[in-house]
Amino acid sequence: MTEETKPKRAPKRAEKAADEYIKVTLVRSPVGRPRVQRLTATALGLRRLQSHAVLKATPAVLGMVRKIGHLLEVEHVEKP
């Protein structure tokens, strides 16, 4: 096979050397907020005030945290 006929492959994504984790704590109530924000808090595993969850810092999780950041307290932590 020549160089021109080889199928092209997607480049491999660079893997992080160390996984990053964040600890999110619900410090303000989602009551009275839009339904999407309440459901986002539930999706992060936050059920009631002062509940917390340690989550892997993936783009999906960071997007959810950014959406309801005004209700949360966020800390970077080592592996749980």
Q: What would your notes on this structure say?
A:
This protein is an alpha+beta fold and 80 residues long. The protein has one domain (21-77): 2-Layer Sandwich (Ribosomal Protein L30, Chain: A). It is built from two helices and three strands. The chain has helices at 35-43, 59-67; strands spanning 21-26, 52-56, 72-77. Strands 2-1-3 form a three-stranded antiparallel β-sheet, with no helix packed on it. The longest helix is centred in the middle third of the chain and has 9 residues, at 35-43.
Mean pLDDT: 89
Residues in β-strands, percent:
15-25%
Count every helix, treating DSSP H or I runs of 4 or more residues as helices: 2
Radius of gyration: 19 Å
Give the % helix.
10-25%
CATH topology (level 3) name: Ribosomal Protein L30, Chain: A
- Counted up, domains total 1
State the separation between the terminal residues, measured CA to CA.
49 Å
Classification by helices and strands = alpha+beta
Sum up the overall morphology in one term.
Answer: elongated
* Fourth-level CATH superfamily: Ribosomal protein L30/L7
